[in-house]
Amino acid sequence: MFYAAILNFMDLMRFYQDEEKRTEHINPLILQSEHFIKLLNSHHNCGKIGIRWISLGIKDGSIRPEVQPDISFYVIWSMLVGFDKLTGPVSYEGKGIKLHIDNWRPGFIRLVQDMLKGTLQSRKVQVVQGTLF
């Protein structure tokens, strides 16, 4: 439930920031909910923590120094949300796509690590799918 609430909350935030859209697209009961208010007050915590982790990685040398922590965090966050939202459709797809979640997940993790370390271009790409169509 928490996971679904977070994803739905992100969708709601698109409307929440515009008062006209807020009243048109968001149920007033949601706006009055103590849980919505708690999410509203704490939704920046993930960003703050992620940006701090990336900053620490830059400081300890595990992440390349030219990485911008705030931009990098939100790029990775959006990739994670996209990865999660596509997991169901990709797992269901059976028409010539040879990508399986057991191959996709480690490839995804490796790509993010390589982006942060700066090793993306120095590594030969390993094929994880046979055909696309």
Helix and strand topology:
Blueprint: H1 2-16, H2 19-25, H3 28-32, H4 34-42, H5 45-60, H6 69-92, H7 101-117
Helix pairs in contact: 5-6, 6-7
Protein name: TetR family transcriptional regulator
Model description:
With 133 residues, the chain is mainly α. It folds into two domains: 2-42, no CATH class; 47-117, no CATH class. It has helices at 2-16, 19-25, 28-32, 34-42, 45-60, 69-92, 101-117. Helix 5 packs across helix 6 and helix 6 (69-92) runs antiparallel to helix 7 (101-117). The longest helix has 24 residues, at 69-92. It is flat, with a radius of gyration of 19 Å.
Binned strand content: under 5%
User: Measured on Cα atoms, how large is the radius of gyration?
Assistant: 19 Å
The 3D shape can be described as: flat
Instruction: Output the number of helix runs.
Output: 7
Uncertain residue segments = none
* Percentage of residues assigned to helices: 55-70%
Number of strand segments: 0
Order of helices and strands: HHHHHHH
Counting structural domains, the number is 2
- Biggest pleated sheet: none
Class based on secondary structure composition and strand pairing: mainly alpha
Distance between the termini: 35 Å
Overall pLDDT confidence: 80
